[in-house]
Write a structure and sequence with these properties.
The chain is an alpha+beta fold. It is 40% helix and 17% strand. Among the domains are: 61 residues, Winged helix-like DNA-binding domain superfamily/Winged helix DNA-binding domain (Arc Repressor Mutant, subunit A, Orthogonal Bundle); 73 residues, SH3 type barrels (Roll). A hairpin with a 5-residue loop joins strand 5 and strand 6. The chain starts with 10 loop residues before the first helix and ends in a 14-residue tail after the last strand.
Length: 238
């Protein structure tokens, strides 16, 4: 297995791993088909096949012929390290240089590969220890041995579970309604009750909020233990 402290991947190799993690965040299941990876990277499937075999030989992914790839722990940890730097840069560029989230993402994709770990940690402290990016995506933890779970729909939670809102996938009207109720990326919520047809009663801060099952299907969350700190970050465009 590769030693992550000494192994140095090229930017291209890192992007394969990062893209695989992003696909799982968006709901793809493993094994991830090579055709899906090629489409996300905008490259030819033959090139993907060659690179995937190289990453498999290095111990970053498990390649299953005719099925796709499964990220191995070292591959997921390395990808999360890169994503942590990207999303910290995105947040810095949006909050302090007033770039749009799209502009910030494009620039952060270049900066993520050249940012030393100590600079990333200084940025993390400077930004008040954020947990989500301007696009509502989770910022992986500093400890790369901690593998973050992909977001899941709020509707899958059970009574008594605690979670952090990661992003809202709905039209502007639905987003505005939830924002007004305190349901936004970075907010901590607890499921108090589940009613007929999936309506959910939530505790959000000091407020109790009821949302429909259809809205709950489009609110993505990460499960949190009771009392676990959530560093909320507010964005007007989320």
């Amino acid at each position: 297995m590769p030693n992550l402290k000494t192994a140095k991947l090229s930017e291209s190799e890192e992007m394969y791993l990062v893209t695989a993690v992003q696909l799982t965040e968006a709901g793809s299941t493993e094994p991830i088909p090579l055709s899906q990876l090629a489409q996300a990277l905008s490259i030819q499937p033959a090139s993907v096949n060659q690179m995937v075999r190289k990453l498999a030989d290095a111990g970053y992914v498990n390649y299953l012929p005719y099925k796709g790839i499964v990220l191995l722990p070292d591959g997921r940890r390395l990808a999360n390290r890169v994503l942590r730097r990207r999303r910290l840069w995105e947040l810095f560029l949006v909050k302090h240089l007033e770039l749009s989230p799209t502009e910030a993402d494009a620039l952060a994709c270049r900066l993520e590969h050249i940012t030393p770990s100590n600079v990333a940690e200084r940025m993390f402290q400077f930004l008040d220890r954020p947990s989500v990016s301007p696009l509502g995506l989770p910022i992986p933890p500093k400890n790369a041995d901690v593998v973050i779970d992909p977001p899941q729909p709020l509707s899958l939670l059970t009574i008594g579970q605690h979670a952090e809102i990661i992003r809202l996938e709905m039209d502007p009207a639905g987003t505005a309604f939830l924002h007004a109720e305190g349901i936004r990326p970075g907010a901590a919520i607890t499921v108090l009750a589940i009613a007929y047809q999936g309506a959910v009663l939530l505790q959000a801060g000091e407020r109790q909020v009821t949302i429909t099952g259809s809205l709950a299907d489009n609110v993505l969350v990460i499960h949190r233990k009771h009392g676990e700190t959530v560093a909320a970050t507010k964005f007007e465009n989320n």
